[in-house]
Amino acid sequence: MSLTRHNRGFTLIELAIVLIIVALLSGGLMMAVSAQMDTIAASETQRRLNDARDALLGYVAANGRLPCPAIGGATGVESPLGGGNCNDNWDGFLPAVTLGLSPSNEAGYAVDGWGNPVRYAITKAVSSQVSTANQIKAAWNAGTALAADLRICSSALGMTGSGASASCAAGSELANNAVAVIYSRGKNGAAAPVSADEQANGDTDRLFVSHTPTSAGANEFDDLVIWLSPNILYNRLIAAGRLP
């Protein structure tokens, strides 16, 4: 007497269910990994921005002035070389070659954790006061305050004016006398931002927006922004023996 053995295989429905479960698990894992990578990139970007601020303070201690921003095609050096009247005060790049910073891209610009160029703005109040050798000291000796005018707002809502007359809305001003602003445009770089807050960091004026990140959508904001106070600048110049 022989026994017949029946092997039961997957039905198409069961196979489809298994594939759906695998896809869901894989998708969830990929989302988790992507989110973790973004967190790491943001943390690394913050570290690089802090390093950039330290490098700027070291530069001003050694040279008595801040470097000008680099411009497109300037191969990572300040423009113009030697400072003076900067060619692009409010919409330039961090001059990694001038500052000796790494990592940088093939154009010589410092990059953030996503590989996008780090941006750098410098005040142009009173002409080239902070980017011309000995002008900070001259202002100090004359008893005049450093005329820094870069403004940091917590929101683009209610911003008014443009150029030298631009200002934050009442209650949204985080700083009104920044000497320099160092910032990353975030993971999405400068790729056609849709939110007003991100657009404010790319519209070539002296107003910048900084606040905690918000998720993707109409109000997306992933820019990271730090700035340099004139008082810290004075402190480093005094410590370096360049003031008084």
Overall description:
The protein has 244 residues and is an alpha+beta fold. It has one domain. The chain is 32% helix and 12% strand. The chain contains 5 helices and 7 strands; from the N terminus they run αβαβαβββαββα. The protein has helices at 12-63, 96-99, 135-141, 196-200, 230-239; strands spanning 92-93, 119-122, 150-153, 173-178, 180-184, 207-209, 224-228. Helix 1 packs across helix 5 (230-239). It starts with 11 loop residues before the first helix and ends in a 5-residue tail after the last helix. The relative contact order is 0.13. Pfam families: N_methyl. It comes from Dechloromonas aromatica (strain RCB).
Give me some keywords for this one.
single chain; 244 residues; alpha+beta; four-stranded antiparallel beta sheet; three-stranded mixed beta sheet; 5 helices; 7 strands; transmembrane helix; N_methyl_site; membrane; transmembrane; Pilin-like
How many structural domains are formed by the residues?
1
Mean pLDDT: 85
Number of helices: 5
Task: Estimate the helix proportion, in percent.
Answer: 25-40%
List the secondary-structure elements in sequence, H or E: HEHEHEEEHEEH
Contiguous runs where pLDDT drops below 50 for at least 5 residues:
none
- Please state the overall shape, judged from the principal axes of the Cα atoms: elongated
Sheet bearing the most strands, described? 4 strands, antiparallel
Strand ordering within the main sheet: 1-2-5-7
Span of the ends, CA to CA: 110 Å
Task: Please tally the β strands and state the result.
Answer: 7
Strand content: 5-15%
Q: How big is the Rg?
A: 25 Å
Computed structural class: alpha+beta
